[in-house]
Amino acid sequence: MTQGGLPRIGVLAIQGDYAAHADALVQAGAEPVEVRTPADLAGLDGLILPGGESTTMLKFLERHGFFAALDEFARTKPMFGTCAGAILLAREVRNPPQRSLGLLDVVVERNAYGRQIDSAILTASTKLDGGPMEMVFIRAPRIVETGGGVEVLAERDGSPALMHQGNILAATFHPELSADRRVHKLFVKFVNRARSAPAERSSK
Question: Quick one: which of 110, 112, 89, 65 has its CA closest to 167?
């Protein structure tokens, strides 16, 4: 891949609607790549951790030795987690506690909105250009605490629903299930910025 080509963004393809993320990435101007082993991270410019069942995803990551690989990947490459993926990115997980990557300075509470009323499609304001955004919540977690370096871009009932810290982006909803591609375009922007950083440093 050359600097001028499309960014290659991986999607962890173990569960969740990773195919919808792949479609969204194509529409946002990136080349999606399915990731099932740590070796698949080689040559990627960014990575999406999709929704699913976070404990199942956690067991898979532990069994296949992903944690060290993801920690190393995140040192230089952007990552984006949606729903269960956001749980995996968090500094601390509650209800119940579980291991996480600790890449995003937030505390997240699993199953925060209950199991019976577990899905909702809401429209809320956002700091992104383009007006209010449709947000699809499915058994969504809730962010109960954020660190000072986290910028909140959208909220649900006063709790962060879309946020980033540097090149780490997280959503407690499923942007891949809406026609609105602003969130994926934002992540592609983060990826392209990270790709250009080495060239910018070398040109100085």
Answer: 89
**CA gap 153, 143 in Å, rounded:** 13
Which residues are within 8 A (CB) of 2 and not within 5 positions of it... i.e. 6 or more apart? none
**H or E segment to which residue 13 belongs:** none
pLDDT for position 203: 37
To the nearest 10°, report the CA torsion of 102, 107, 110, 112: -160
CB 137 within 8 A of CB 122: yes
* Per-residue confidence band for 4, with pLDDT thresholds at 50, 70 and 90: low
Query: Is residue 76 a contact partner of residue 107, using CB atoms and an 8 Å limit?
Result: no
In single-letter form, the type of residue at position 118 comes to: D
Report the C-alpha gap between 80 and 151 in whole angstroms: 14
Quick check: 7 and 33 in contact, CB under 8 A? Answer: no
Query: Which tokens is 29 given?
Result: 């101007």
Catalytic site positions:
83, 174, 176
